[in-house]
Amino acid sequence: MLDSGTHFRRGLRRTCRRISRRYRELRMIAKGLLSRNHPVLAHVIPMRRCNLSCAYCNEYDNYSQPVPLATMHQRLDRLADLGTTIITISGGEPLLHPQLDEIVTRIRRRGMIAGMITNGYLLTADRVQRLNRAGLEHLQISIDNVKPDEVSKKSLKVLDKKLQLLAAHAEFHVNINSVVGAGIYNPHDALTVGRRAIELGFTSTVGIIHDGDGQLQPLGDEEREVYAAMRSMEKSSYAQINYFQDNIAHGRENRWRCRAGSRYLYICEDGLVHYCSQQRGYPAKPLMEYTVEDIRREYRTAKSCAPRCTVACVHQISYIDFWRGPQDLTPLPASDQPEDGLVQIQ
Ligand code: SF4
Ligand code: SF4
What we know:
Layout: H1 4-34, E1 41-44, H2 69-81, E2 86-89, H3 100-109, E3 113-118, H4 125-134, E4 138-143, H5 156-169, E5 173-181, H6 189-199, E6 203-209, H7 221-237, H8 244-249, E7 264-267, E8 272-274, E9 283-286, H9 292-299, H10 312-318
Parallel strand pairs: 1-2, 1-7, 2-3, 3-4, 4-5, 5-6
Antiparallel strand pairs: 7-8, 8-9
Helix pairs in contact: 2-3, 3-4, 4-5, 6-7
């Protein structure tokens, strides 16, 4: 239990951080509008290993070692030199990395916005306070159901205590993402998760689970009802639901220009740049050799997977350029790709 003085000081720090975050986010949008030649968002993977094994996930293993801190520093410095604005640490499970705090500190020291996606299992009060001190600005936890099942253990029942810890100690912004779609038995669980998130003072979003290639799987009637209910919650709670998901929910394709490889970069544990978590293998060039020419080329490259894509973060980032920069190139031929490309663009 926190005393009233501690509570007041924490509230003040949260307010100051929120104002500073908003200011830097506005600066990010302005910078993104002024120049097309830099990444806005990069996902970095310091740890491919995960402590869970969700049935739908193709982004983890159970054996990888952490990427050494010095290597992570080099990659973050390279991203900063390329002009990247936001870094989201992802995985696997980033909390398994023993030097996660130093990674966050380096991101902030290089003037970038620091975020993280975690399953939340390893959070403790001390861990949250260390992330405060390191300067973390955004944290997202995805919660898939109310009770654990064979598809996912990312359950409200298991994680509610962790959410309470975050509500008590976190000075950074917390978003709880719930999901509907293939493999989730009870679509109404998403509403329960969303309501709990708002009750604890977090923001809430809903995602639609994609297939193994990040592609659209139309929702059933009940799932669409839940999706619509989450949308109405948005009005009263500031939950952010992405416009493109309206089409996905109805099984319709989206017309948009995916700027992966340019405005958005996915840096795997081996330090290669990929389009996104679902298109690993393109362009698969080492980050340390990635140049402004690569960014310009990929900005103009049309991705054939775009119409049925559900990868939310790339949709959001690509919105900055939606009215400009037609795409008249195609991805590099497969012969220019490494033989162990993980997922082939189709
Ligand atoms: S917790 Fe996240 S990274 Fe780990 S298996 Fe589940 S979805 Fe994949
Ligand atoms: S459209 Fe872009 S973000 Fe979506 S799967 Fe293809 S490369 Fe990835």
